[in-house]
Amino acid sequence: MSKGKRISVLGTRGYPSYYGGFETAVRKLAPAFADAGWDVTVYSRPGALRADDPGRDPRIRSIETHGLETKQLSTLTYGLTSALHAALVRRPDVALVMNVANGFWLPLLKLARIPTVVNVDGIEWEREKWGRLAKLMFLAGAHCTAWFADYLVADSREIQRRWRADFGRGSTFIAYGGDIPDPGTTAGPAAAGTSVVPLPGGARPRAYALFVARMVPENSVDAFMEAARVIGRSFPVILIGGAGYQDPVEDRLRSLAASEPAVTWLGHLSDDVRLHALWSQAGVYFHGHSVGGTNPALVQAMACAAPIVARDTVYNREVLGDAALFVEPDPQAVADACLRVLWSADLRSRLGSLALARSRRHYQWSDIAAAYVELATTARRRRARRPAREEIAAPERGGRGAEADAR
Questions:
Q1: Which residues contact 367 (CB under 8 A, 6 or more apart)?
Q2: Residue 379: phi, psi to the nearest 5?
Q3: Tens of pLDDT along 353-378?
Q4: Which of 286, 264, 268 lies closest to 331, judged by CA?
Q5: What's the CA gap between 225 and 208, in Å, rounded?
Q6: pLDDT tens digits for range 80-119
Q7: Which residues of 128-159 are buried (b: 16+ CB within 10 A; e: fewer)?
Q8: pTM (2 decimals)?
Q9: For the segment 53-72, what is each residue's pLDDT rounded down to a tens digit?
């Protein structure tokens, strides 16, 4: 590794981990940084890693720190211990920080003269799953991020607009990637009437509805659970995801699956091959996320050529363009749109082809990773500069935008 090209990643569960979107991003970005000659360290939580993962890149160093494993305090406490270790011990040339909740600890990195690149994620303080105190905490973290981060990354144009309007900060637009499954693998498209992976609940390829999400209110979970009862009269329905912590919604999901023979709930699924296969063979995928930017599950569904019905939000329209049917989060409207796709082979084919083409054009991991490496390189070169709030031109390629903000 080249001396002086050290990057540390803070704010995720670690590498390799499969908990959520940030963890997937790290599994893609960390090897890309190593390929570009960086010495890469990822801060991790105890018990969150797959040490025997055959896909683990041996060039990536994992450092475990400790925190409180609770819904409200885990991000804050693990962020604090990671930031302290980075500032006092590791002292990288650049810190890539995920999640504005870690904005509270950016002054520690600034005092250590470590440039920071912060992925601001979505508008966390508007998520229904958080209580009032947690929302205030995220909003305060966002203000700290706006004040102390050197560079911001927004994964959608709308997130860019919100940060400019709400905090007066520009950002670099770098979207999120999806893996296009190899047709020669079990995650690749299946021929009509066949299945390359076992499908639960008697489902057949192209003849089931799929829902993949964190089971929290802003992801339209309630609406889809009611819609599933209607869809299930004609087609199997598969739900994937959990609440992350003890939550009554999981009891309701168990009850739904027990009372509706056509409905199967698989819980959290960390097997990428199986998950991609389920997307690739779905007759329709409903995406109900309402708060956030470029959603990881959505771009992966697009990469798998899934026919998509999506909740009508500015974020989903930005990502999907004309490659989906859009609905309000009303159970009957969701059921009607999903059944319309399931009953029409032509519509399934058209939506799946449009989604895959859009994925290839805008959401490739190779382009996303290259944009992160370029921004980190800029941060390293300008580490001695004072806050400048200047905008830097970046080519319109691979989900990258024309607006960047240096501080």
A1: 177, 397, 398, 399, 400
A2: -60, -40
A3: 999 999 999 999 999 999 999 999 99
A4: 286
A5: 15
A6: 999 999 999 999 999 999 989 999 999 999 999 999 999 9
A7: ebbeeebbebbbebbebbbebbbbbbbbbbbb
A8: 0.86
A9: 887 899 999 999 988 777 66
